[in-house]
Specification:
9-stranded mixed beta sheet; 7 helices
Length: 288
């Protein structure tokens, strides 16, 4: 199915008609993100592209090349990087050395089998949603280790091929860091998507409870922080991105992170579709 043939053509027309330099926000469905972002860059605009920025390996090649040809012109919508507790946790991790272990338990929404996230050209729900926690892990790993393996647990008995619910994604990195992400539709869903994130480095353990509360345990001492209300940091992300654009400052999302996050996301999505357990990282990971 080609979900975006008509909207993409219309969006391309709007990009061409917008006086440059302008701002183009790409918030269409996933398979058109790279195409429209590259068209906007070529037309001389600043670009804010929603997650996931890329769905296929060819997307990654094109967008990485475009970002390098137009440095500082692309903002990417991974909002969790902008959350104050996430930033505080990242700062606290700098006091420790060595590999990092990150475990994410994500309560996802329940979708019908024909939801567009599951359409072949949209890249699975791993691409559409779990990419958030892949990106978050890469954000926490400031020593920039490269991923070396991606595995996905088997789908649940009786579920349809390609099902990506109740599965555990595991990523190992060259420095010994480890990421696990469990996506589940089970449990209370009154608050929609919920997340519990456990981060360990050295003698420190940091727990983020639904991007609302944080506990830091180190040397036998526990410290607690919280924000006034539950917030996914969308407002902070848009405000900072727009502030950079208005002030003429460059975007901050690294091309390297685009490549690494996309490589993990695409490898994991391929595993969900093929029912294989482990995937080789794509050869274009060298673009990082």
């Amino acid at each position: 199915r080609d979900l975006h043939s008509f909207p993409t053509r219309r969006s391309s027309d709007l990009i061409a008609e917008t006086p440059a330099p302008g701002l183009v926000v790409v918030a269409t469905a996933h398979d058109s993100h790279t195409r429209l972002a590259c068209a906007a860059l070529k037309a001389g605009h600043r670009v804010f592209v929603e997650k996931p920025p890329a769905v296929t390996g060819e997307d990654v090649r094109r967008l990485a090349a475009a970002m390098r040809a137009h440095p500082g012109a692309v903002e990417i919508g991974f909002n969790r990087r902008y959350h104050p507790l996430v930033r505080r946790a990242r700062t606290r991790l700098r006091r420790e050395t060595g590999p990092v272990t990150i475990s994410c338990l994500v309560k996802e929404l329940t979708f019908e089998p024909d939801h567009w996230y599951f359409w072949p050209n949209q890249g699975t729900r791993i691409t559409g949603n779990l990419c958030h926690w892949i990106d978050l892990a890469v954000f926490f790993l400031e020593d920039h280790p490269m991923p070396v393996s991606v595995t996905l647990s088997p789908r649940m008995p009786g579920s349809e091929p390609g099902n990506d619910e109740e599965r555990v994604l595991t990523v190992t990195f060259e420095d010994g860091s480890l990421l696990t992400v469990l996506g589940t539709t089970r449990g209370d869903d009154i608050r929609g998507v919920q997340e519990q994130i456990d981060i360990r480095r050295g003698k420190t353990t940091i727990t983020l409870d639904d991007l609302w509360k944080m506990r830091v345990r180190s040397d036998g001492i526990e410290r607690y922080s919280r924000t006034p209300f539950r917030d996914k940091a969308h407002t902070a992300m848009y405000a900072e991105a727009l502030g950079r654009i208005v002030a003429g400052r460059p975007a901050v999302y690294p091309v390297r992170d685009l490549v690494v996050v996309s490589a993990i996301q695409i490898a994991a999505s391929d595993l969900a579709r093929t029912d294989e357990r482990a995937a080789d990282l794509p050869e274009w990971l060298c673009l990082a």
